[in-house]
Design brief:
about 0% strand, mainly alpha, 10 helices
Length: about 260
């Protein structure tokens, strides 16, 4: 019995890791820059927003150093945005393998979360370098960073377990997901903080965006004033709820999805 209990997780984690590693190899095998591509997009976005808000306009949002303020949210946003975007092709891209293999189908969602999560972790040295050169102060709030990663992982997996099967059944959801992600970027405290929103009402409404509390935790290590207890509590509740709902929806839709592929 002990051998069987150990083999089940192994039968799940081994193909999960192999598929995630395959995704990373395919992404970077023909690339000259390789690892740099995982940080180039958020880095360029951060530099653009830094230039606009500090050099072109009089910035009234965020905190100093602003480039660190941006990166602490942009890096996890790239992880979230990239994963959710790839969820829309999770089953359609490898439909034959999904039908023919006996591995749990949730692996096709979790491999995306893992691969994008690895890219996120690989981008953290860039944040560290900018924090050092910009003179950012690091506090005990940095201990919240792993908590933010766990919450974001739960939230992203939950969304993936819902989006991936639904896109197979309703193909228009792929375009709809892209539109939602564009709106969500500006509706989330990436280039601004929750405290920058006008009025308590807007801040409380924004706190019900699960990404708000997660980004608050990422920033707390450098900017303690960005910690928002309400947003963090809401994010924790919604992340768990998204995961539970995702598992339920995925199990209900899995047989129908296999017929459609």
């Amino acid at each position: 019995m002990a051998t069987t209990s150990r083999s089940r997780p192994q039968r799940y984690w081994q193909p999960l890791w192999l598929l995630s590693a395959r995704d990373l190899r395919v992404r970077y095998s023909t690339s000259v820059l390789g690892y740099l591509w995982s940080v180039l997009d958020p880095l360029l976005m951060s530099l653009i927003y830094w230039f606009i808000f500090t050099q072109v306009f009089q910035r009234g949002v965020g905190a100093e150093p602003y480039i660190v303020f941006l990166l602490t949210a942009l890096l996890p946003w790239v992880w979230f945005n990239g994963a959710v975007g790839d969820f829309t092709r999770a089953f359609l891209k490898d439909a034959r393998l999904v039908r023919s293999t006996a591995i749990p189908r949730s692996i096709w969602v979790n491999r995306i979360v893992l691969a994008k999560g690895i890219e996120f972790l690989l981008s953290l040295p860039i944040l560290a370098l900018f924090a050092i050169f910009a003179g950012a102060t690091v506090g005990w709030g940095l201990l919240w960073f792993p908590v933010a990663i766990v919450l974001q992982t739960m939230l992203t997996i939950g969304i993936g377990l819902i989006v991936a099967p639904l896109v197979v059944l309703y193909r228009d959801l792929e375009r709809a997901t892209k539109l939602v992600l564009r709106v969500l970027f500006y509706a989330s405290p990436v280039i601004y903080g929750l405290s920058d929103l006008p009025g308590t009402v807007f801040q409380q409404i924004a706190a019900f965006n699960p990404l708000s509390g997660i980004f608050s935790l990422y920033r707390t290590g450098f900017f303690p004033e960005q910690f928002d207890a309400l947003a963090v509590i809401v994010s924790a509740i919604l992340s768990v709820a998204a995961l539970v709902l995702g598992v339920f929806v995925f199990r209900r839709l899995e047989p129908t999805v296999l017929k459609e592929l």
